[in-house]
Amino acid sequence: MTDIRDSWGTDRPVSWLPYGVAAVKGVFALALFRLFATPFSEEMFGEQWLPMPTWEWTLASLTPVLLIVVARRPADWSVVSGECTTLRSALIFYLAYGLAFAAFQGKTVLWLSVAAGLGGLAGMRLLARKEPAHGS
């Protein structure tokens, strides 16, 4: 499922998981930019150009979860497990923002971001336990 055939004639499977990791990092960088653009525009220009993120934050919080679900095979997880710190940081940040704004601002759509963050962290923990021991 995570392999495509090489079009250069070698007919070896090529993993697309590094592209998925890069996409998660890119979406996380855009989400951070989107989050800090609102206070920046208000402070620098005296007016708020964008409201604080809501539904787009929920979509961004689903990207690491989708990568974790797709990379659940042990061979695929070994490729992604090198980026656990980045994935965990993104999930915790999405979870913290979603929880703060869902609880204190009443943004109900952000509860999906909270659920995605918790689900992603639980999935990472489960997959890390199933990973074969190294050095055997």
Textual characterization of the structure:
- This protein is mainly α and 136 residues long.
- 68% of the residues lie in helices and 4% in strands.
- The protein has helices spanning 17-45, 55-70, 74-80, 84-104, 111-130; strands spanning 3-5, 13-15.
- A two-stranded antiparallel sheet has the order 1-2.
- The longest helix has 29 residues, at 17-45.
pLDDT under 50 segments (min length 5)? none
- Spatial order of strands in the largest sheet: 1-2
The main pleated sheet reads as: 2 strands, antiparallel
Radius of gyration: 18 Å
* Mean pLDDT across all amino acids: 82
What letter string, H or E per element, gives the SSE order?
A: EEHHHHH
User: Helical segment tally?
Assistant: 5
What is the element layout, followed by pairings?
Blueprint: E1 3-5, E2 13-15, H1 17-45, H2 55-70, H3 74-80, H4 84-104, H5 111-130
Helix pairs in contact: 1-2, 2-4, 2-5, 4-5
Short overview:
The protein has 136 residues and is mainly alpha-helical.
Structure keywords:
136 residues; elongated; mainly alpha
